[in-house]
C-alpha cells in the first residue's frame, strides 16, 4: 500500500478516539493537506471518505491490472486432498515438492532442478532413439514474420488465438510485427524448399529441442497449460507416403515408451478425428492418458502426417528417380513438459509427489536415525558408505545428514518430493549389519543385509516401477465404460468415466456432442480412434435397424446419435468420449 494511504488510514483510526493529531501527508501528487488541532471524526468525515475512495480506486486498478493466479508457498505437508480438491492439491504438490516456482507473469513458471532432471532423462532416451532413425538435431530461430506465418491459412487459423507478437523495439513501433513461434512448421519449411532438390536429398529428418510460446488462454496450469513450455519437435520429409506413414507410427511408439516405460503411465495409441487433427495436417495420431480423479482425458503426445499440403504452400519440390517433379510427403511430431504434469496427476497422492524410479533425480535417500546415546558419527559414516556403494552400482542415491531436522521431518520432506525408496540407518541397523528400507509407493518396510544391498535395491526399484504402472493401469481400466445409448453415455460422463462408444465418424455428430454436453461438467470431446479394436459379431446393429458391414471397431468417439441426428452405421467405430482436461 502507498505511504500516503497508510498515513491517511492511520489518521482515520486515531480519529475514532478524538485524539488531537497532526496530519502532514501527501494525499495525491498535487494536494497536500496540513491539519493542526483537535478534531472529531464527524468533522473530518468528508475528508476520510475522499481518502477511502482514492484507496478503493487504487486497489481496484491494481487488481484489474494483475493476472490472478493462485500461488502456493513451500511448506511441509499438503492442505488439500487429491480426491477432495484436485486442482488445489495439484498446485500444492508441484510447488511443495520443489518442481516449479511461480513467476510474475501468469502462465510462466520456473522449472526447478527436480523437474529438469526428469526432462533430461526423457530427452536422453528420446534423442538416442531418434538418432538411430537418422534424425539430426538442429535449431531454428524463435521469431517468424507475419507473411510467412500466414502462408498456410488452415494452419495459422488453428494457432491464431495463441500467437504472441513482438510489436515494439524500445520506444519505437516495429514496421513489421514479428510472431513468436507457437510451432515451427512455417519457420522451417521455407528452408526445406531451399535444401531439397532431388531424390538424393531425401529423406530429410530434423529435430529441435526448444521452447515455444502459446499465449491466449485462461486458467493456466503448471506443465499442462503454460504460455511458454519446453518440447522437442521433429520435422521430416520423404519421397513417398509409405515412408511417411511408417515413421508416424515409429515415433508414436517412442512416445508410448516414454509414458509407459519411463513415467509408468498407461496410454492409448490412436488416430485423431478430423476436427481434432493438427491444423493443416493430413492426419494425426496420438497417445492419450486419463486422469481418474477428474474423469478427464489428456493428450500425451502427437505424431502427424502432414501429407503434401505444406509442400504445396512452400514449394518443397524434388526430382524423383524418373526425372519427374514431385512434392515431398511430410511429418511433424512433438512431446512437451506436459508429460511431467501428467505424471504428477496420475501417481501423486496425499503425501505429495510420487516418482517412478526411472525418472527420479534421487532414487534412494538415506536418512540417519540416531538415538540419544547412539554413536552419531558411526551412523553418519554408515550412511555415507551406503550412498557410495549405491552410486558405484549406478543408482541415484543421496543422504540427508542435516542435524537441524529430525528424522520424522526428513521422512515427510522426501516423501513430499516423491523419492521412490528411503533407507533408514540407526544403532540397531549398525549392530545387525543391515539397513531398513521403506517404499514410497506402498509404505512397505523391510530389513536388508548390507551384503545383499545392491541386488535387493535393484529388485525393489524394479518392483516400484512395475507397481506404479500396474496400479495406474488398473485405475484407468476401471474407468473405461462401454456404452450403447445416449442415456448410458451421459450417465458414464457424469460418473467420470472414459467412454468407448460406437460412432459414425461424422464431423457434424462430433460438433453436436460438444454442444449437447456443454452443461455436463464441460463439453465432451473425442480423444482418438484406438488402434487396438475389439471385434464385433456380424449381424449386430446399432442405433437403427441397419446391419453393420464391418466386424471391427475403427475409431474413437465422443458422441451418440441424438434426436437431431440419425445415422446409419456402415461400420462400427469406437471413440473415447471424455472431457478436455482443464
Automatic annotation (TrEMBL):
Q: Which reaction does it catalyse?
A: tRNA(Pro) + L-proline + ATP = L-prolyl-tRNA(Pro) + AMP + diphosphate
Which SMART domains does its entry note?
Answer: ProRS-C_1 (SM00946)
Could you tell me the EC number(s) of this protein?
Answer: 6.1.1.15
What domain of life does the UniProt record list for this protein's source?
A: Eukaryota
Q: Which residues form the Aminoacyl-transfer RNA synthetases class-II family profile domain?
A: 118-356
Matching InterPro entries: aa-tRNA-synt_IIb (IPR002314), aa-tRNA-synth_II (IPR006195), aa-tRNA-synth_II/BPL/LPL (IPR045864), Anticodon-bd (IPR004154), Anticodon-bd_dom_sf (IPR036621), Pro-tRNA-ligase_IIa (IPR002316), Pro-tRNA-ligase_IIa_arc-type (IPR004499), Pro-tRNA_ligase_II_C (IPR016061)
Pfam families listed in its UniProt record: HGTP_anticodon (PF03129), ProRS-C_1 (PF09180), tRNA-synt_2b (PF00587)
Query: What PROSITE patterns does its record include?
Result: AA_TRNA_LIGASE_II
Which UniProt keywords are given for this protein, alphabetically ordered? Aminoacyl-tRNA synthetase, ATP-binding, Ligase, Membrane, Nucleotide-binding, Protein biosynthesis, Transmembrane, Transmembrane helix
The answer on whether this UniProt entry bears the keyword Cell wall biogenesis/degradation reads no
Citing just one GO molecular function, the answer is:
ATP binding
Question: Main EC class of this protein?
Answer: ligase
Cite a single GO BP annotation: translation
PANTHER family linked to this entry:
BIFUNCTIONAL GLUTAMATE_PROLINE--TRNA LIGASE (PTHR43382:SF2), PROLYL-TRNA SYNTHETASE (PTHR43382)
> What name appears for this protein in its UniProt entry?
proline--tRNA ligase
Q: Provide the organism lineage as a comma list.
A: Eukaryota, Viridiplantae, Streptophyta, Embryophyta, Tracheophyta
Amino acid at each position: 500500500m502507498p505511504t500516503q494511504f497508510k498515513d491517511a488510514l492511520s489518521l482515520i483510526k486515531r480519529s475514532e478516539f478524538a485524539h488531537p493529531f497532526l496530519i502532514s501527508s501527501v494525499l495525491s501528487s498535487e494536494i497536500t493537506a496540513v491539519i493542526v488541532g483537535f478534531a472529531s471524526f464527524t468533522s473530518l468525515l468528508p475528508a476520510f471518505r475522499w481518502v477511502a475512495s482514492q484507496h478503493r480506486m487504487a486497489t481496484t486498478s491494481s487488481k484489474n491490472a494483475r493476472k490472478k493466479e493462485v500461488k502456493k508457498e513451500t511448506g511441509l505437508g499438503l492442505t488439500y486432498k487429491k480426491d477432495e480438491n484436485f486442482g488445489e492439491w495439484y498446485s500444492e504438490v508441484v510447488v511443495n515438492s520443489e518442481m516449479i516456482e511461480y513467476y510474475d507473469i501468469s502462465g510462466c513458471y520456473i522449472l526447478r532442478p527436480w523437474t529438469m532432471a526428469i526432462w533430461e532423462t526423457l530427452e536422453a532416451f528420446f534423442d538416442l532413439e531418434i538418432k538411430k532413425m537418422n534424425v539430426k538435431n538442429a535449431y531454428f530461430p524463435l521469431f517468424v514474420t507475419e507473411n510467412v506465418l500466414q502462408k498456410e491459412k488452415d494452419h495459422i487459423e488453428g494457432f491464431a488465438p495463441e500467437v504472441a507478437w513482438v510489436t515494439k523495439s524500445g520506444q519505437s513501433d516495429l514496421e513489421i510485427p514479428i510472431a513468436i513461434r507457437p510451432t515451427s512448421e512455417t519457420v522451417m519449411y521455407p528452408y526445406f524448399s531451399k535444401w531439397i532438390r532431388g531424390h538424393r536429398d531425401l529423406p530429410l529428418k530434423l529435430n529441435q529441442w526448444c521452447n515455444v510460446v502459446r499465449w491466449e488462454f485462461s486458467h493456466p496450469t503448471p506443465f499442462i497449460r503454460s504460455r511458454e513450455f519446453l518440447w522437442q519437435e521433429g520435422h521430416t520429409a520423404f519421397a513417398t507416403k509409405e515412408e511417411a506413414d511408417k515413421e508416424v507410427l515409429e515415433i508414436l511408439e517412442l512416445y508410448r515408451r516414454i509414458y509407459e516405460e519411463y513415467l509408468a503411465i498407461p496410454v492409448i495409441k490412436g488416430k485423431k478425428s478430423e476436427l481434432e487433427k493438427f491444423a493443416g495436417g493430413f492426419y494425426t495420431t496420438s497417445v492419450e492418458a486419463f486422469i481418474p480423479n477428474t474423469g478427464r482425458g489428456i493428450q500425451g503426445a502427437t505424431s502427424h502426417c502432414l501429407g503434401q499440403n505444406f509442400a504445396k504452400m512452400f514449394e518443397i519440390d524434388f526430382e524423383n528417380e524418373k526425372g519427374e517433379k514431385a512434392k515431398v510427403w511430410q511429418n511433424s511430431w512433438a512431446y512437451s513438459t506436459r508429460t511431467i504434469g501428467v505424471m504428477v496427476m496420475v501417481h501423486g497422492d496425499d503425501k505429495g509427489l510420487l516418482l517412478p524410479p526411472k525418472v527420479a533425480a534421487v532414487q534412494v535417500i538415506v536418512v540417519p536415525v540416531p538415538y540419544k546415546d547412539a554413536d552419531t558419527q558411526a551412523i553418519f559414516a554408515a550412511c555415507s558408505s551406503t550412498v557410495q556403494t549405491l552410486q558405484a552400482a549406478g543408482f541415484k542415491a543421496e543422504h540427508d545428514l542435516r542435524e537441524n531436522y529430525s528424522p520424522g521431518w526428513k521422512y515427510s520432506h522426501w516423501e513430499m518430493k516423491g523419492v521412490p525408496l528411503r533407507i533408514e540407518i540407526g544403532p540397531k541397523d549398525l549392530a545387525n549389519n543391515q539397513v531398513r528400507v521403506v517404499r514410497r509407493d506402498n509404505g512397505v518396510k523391510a530389513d536388508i543385509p548390507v551384503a545383499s544391498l545392491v541386488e535387493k535395491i535393484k529388485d525393489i526399484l524394479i518392483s516400484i516401477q512395475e507397481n506404479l504402472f500396474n496400479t495406474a493401469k488398473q485405475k484407468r481400466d476401471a474407468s473405461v465404460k462401454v456404452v450403447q445409448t445416449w442415456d448410458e453415455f451421459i450417465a458414464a460422463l457424469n460418473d467420470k468415466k472414459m467412454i468407448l462408444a460406437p460412432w459414425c465418424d461424422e464431423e457434424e455428430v462430433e460438433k453436436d456432442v460438444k454442444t449437447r454436453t456443454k452443461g455436463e461438467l464441460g463439453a465432451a470431446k473425442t480423444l482418438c480412434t484406438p488402434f487396438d479394436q475389439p471385434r464385433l459379431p456380424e449381424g449386430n446393429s446399432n442405433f437403427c435397424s441397419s446391419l453393420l458391414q464391418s466386424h471391427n471397431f475403427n475409431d474413437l468417439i465422443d458422441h451418440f446419435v441424438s434426436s437431431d441426428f440419425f445415422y446409419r452405421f456402415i461400420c462400427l467405430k469406437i471413440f473415447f468420449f471424455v472431457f478436455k482436461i482443464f
